[in-house]
Amino acid sequence: MRRILHLDMDAFFAAVEQKRRPELAGMPVVIGGSGDPGQRGVVSTASYEARKFGIHSAMPLRTAYRLCPDAVFLPVDYEEYSRVSRQVKEVLREFSPVMEDVGIDEAFIDITDVDRTPEEISADIQKKIREQTGLTCSIGIGPNKLLAKIASDMRKPDGITIISADNVEKRIWPLSARKLWGVGPKTEAYLDTLGIKTIGQLAAEPLERLVGLFGESYGTYLFKASRGEDDSPLVTHWAPKSVSRETTFQKDTDTWQEIARNLADLTRDVVNDMRKTGLRSRNVTVKVRFDDFRTQTRATTLPDFTDSLEEIRRAAFQCLGRFELKRKVRLIGVRVGRLESREEEGSS
């Protein structure tokens, strides 16, 4: 049986800031946007002290400020967080070469062939990360990725949780259905209308009913996941399916020049991101969110794969021209898809 370990850094962005600014220790810290709660932006991470006030990720900064006006608001510093993240991932590679990097603050490793107990491995990982970064992490271990991820969230911060296939009914079924990987707020709300609030209640549903409600793929996933079943492998090499950038205007705007200038800047950033990773694209999509939060997209396919700023920018503006800009615009974004690497292009 496999042994999969999931590591999740505790309140990562906020913890990094508290570490490099000792005066913030024990204070409510909110990381997001430009760090100005008077401007538009959302919470990226909140320290555990801030979470006591009801502040959470993806919450508007203005709402977070209303909940805790005494909190320290700081801008996102991805460069520093990425540097610390690399340190954490290097520690994990010391324990297993099979690692799936699933985000700046989390990862899976396969410890099936490591000849030590899960408790010993987890304790050593936590110790080394604390020594090298001064930060804490929570670790979950299970026979698959699904159970390992659920486990890592059960004892936070600085916890270790081990779940076996034999104790799914006891440990997992009492949890909220939202705890299942892949169940978001909309699915949770729909399940609630069906009287399904826990993973155990979901597990009691017949496969046929779940498929009828959610379709073949997602219904089958919910049926298996609620029983703790997951045979997905660790993905050690990942290729992006798209590259995107977007920006939210500080004030809704209907000024064409401002919208166009931001689209041009975003397109340049996207092309630079593609070039850094050696990618080309054949699909360009522009997203517009209006002041009533209605969101629309327009897409176009290019004649060939390219990383030409001129071609991609021209395509983006062709997409923009297909919107009816009768309302003020809140957000604009651009995404390139259908990617291939330059190596693939050269060998085709």
List its traits.
single chain; 348 residues; alpha+beta; Alpha-Beta Plaits; DNA polymerase, domain 1; Dna Ligase, domain 1; 3 domains; 5-stranded mixed sheet; 5-stranded antiparallel sheet; 13 strands; 23% strand; globular
Write the topology of this structure.
Layout: E1 4-9, H1 12-20, E2 29-31, E3 45-46, H2 48-51, H3 61-67, E4 72-74, H4 78-93, E5 99-103, E6 106-110, H5 118-133, E7 137-142, H6 145-152, E8 160-162, H7 168-171, H8 185-193, H9 199-203, H10 207-214, H11 216-225, E9 242-253, H12 256-276, E10 279-290, E11 295-306, H13 309-320, E12 329-337, E13 340-341, H14 342-347
Parallel strand pairs: 2-4, 7-8
Antiparallel strand pairs: 1-6, 1-7, 2-3, 5-6, 9-12, 10-11, 10-12, 10-13
Helix pairs in contact: 4-5, 10-11, 12-13
